[in-house]
Amino acid sequence: MTDKTIHRMRQLQSLLSLKLLLVLFASFALAACGGQQVTSTVVTPLEHQSIAVDESQLLDLAVLPLDPGLDNEEAKDDLTLSPAVRNAESQYLANKLASSIQQTSAWGAVRAVPNRETVVDVYVEGTIIHSDGEKLSLDISVSDTSNRHWYTKPYTETIGQYAYDQGKQTKRDPFQGLYNRIANDLLQYRQKLSAADAQKLRTISSLKFARDFSPEAFGDHIKETPGGQLEVIRLPAENDPILRRIERIRERDYLFIDTMQEHYDAFSLRMEKPYQSWRMATYEELASVRELKRQSRNRTIGGIAAIIAGIAAAGSDNGSVSNAGAVTVVAGGLLVKSGFSKKAELKIHEDVLAELSQSLEAEIEPRVIELEDRTITLTGNVEAQYTQWKALLREIYQAERGEI
């Protein structure tokens, strides 16, 4: 092999090494420019009771404030989580769910209530597992007035950018499909109950309320089984004067519960706009966070790889390859620096999320309402207000009972 041939082969090898180096660098650079995650969700339609239910068979249902889930493992890693926002969501989501359940036309009165001290036929409780502008996860548990557990089920909805498209956005909640699935499952379970089962639950509710106000008169009408469920032992006389008076007291309780529902509705209405804005902003921020994390990782890895390749090439005997290697080292360093800059930008976005949460907290204010001859302030502790109301009802009952 002649010296001329050997020289040409070295030139060819150098050229191939240079091209390979440039391709390698370009591939890492392109890796830093990725695509955007695309998510779409089909909204589950709400089912309705197709056959009319006799009024005597309609069961009243209460949705309790959801557990904010602040102690969950997932909550510790939730970038968007704010305790104040979660506490507000616990009532907002419960009220949205109650509204969806009511629209199935399968129940009597459906209300948001502070706790199980409110006597109704069916209770819906739950825990917020995850909540941001992109994903909502709830654990829902249903039971009835006899302490019988119906079922517990997880629900998760992930929505896409279309839900926040200003041109297509409707008044529908972005996660309405999740509420609808819960309401549909409740409807299906209710349709499996017999007329006798429904009547039994209504009777137990009536006797529980009566027992709370007059345990000496109704304490032995229902009892708890070893399994913890309530059973009817005997029924009071239809013309029992004490029961009739207690039924009138219960009507007053219904009025107060309706007033509380007005408070919850007003609260949800005031929270609607800032909360949906927070959801939309967190959705956009989460998308940016994911993209920035990916770019930061890819640019850093790509830059380091380019530096290593450039150092190796810089030691080549061939001048062209050596020069290209030096350029690649510099470019790789810039790419690494860009990756660190992206991490700094990521921190800015995380701070924005915290600021958005704080701005939502500022929108949540207590509400003062007028109830008969009393002014009642409903703050975050609605439960305490209802306890005071029940104590007042007992005073009214004792005063009226003296007239029997």
Question: What's the helix and strand layout?
Answer:
Layout: H1 3-31, E1 61-63, H2 73-76, H3 83-102, E2 110-112, E3 122-131, E4 135-144, E5 149-158, H4 176-192, H5 195-213, H6 215-218, E6 222-224, E7 230-232, H7 241-314, H8 319-361, E8 367-371, E9 374-378, H9 382-401
Parallel strand pairs: 1-2, 1-3
Antiparallel strand pairs: 3-4, 4-5, 6-7, 8-9
Helix pairs in contact: 1-7, 1-8, 3-4, 3-7, 5-7, 7-8, 7-9
What form results from the Cα inertia axes?
A: elongated
| Spatial gap, N to C terminus | 125 Å
Question: What is the number of helices?
Answer: 9
Query: Which range does the strand content fall in?
Result: 5-15%
| Low-confidence runs of at least 5 consecutive residues | 15-40, 359-364
The amount of helix comes to 55-70%
What is this structure, in a nutshell?
With 404 residues, the protein is an alpha/beta fold. It contains nine helices and nine strands.
Task: Describe what this molecule looks like in 3D.
Mean pLDDT is 75; it is low at 15-40 and 359-364. The chain has helices spanning 3-31, 73-76, 83-102, 176-192, 195-213, 215-218, 241-314, 319-361, 382-401; strands at residues 61-63, 110-112, 122-131, 135-144, 149-158, 222-224, 230-232, 367-371, 374-378. The protein has nine helices and nine strands. The chain is of the alpha/beta class and 404 residues long. 32% of the residues are buried. The strands form three sheets. Strands 2-1-3-4-5 form a five-stranded mixed beta sheet. Strands 6-7 form a two-stranded antiparallel ribbon. The protein starts with a helix and ends with a helix.
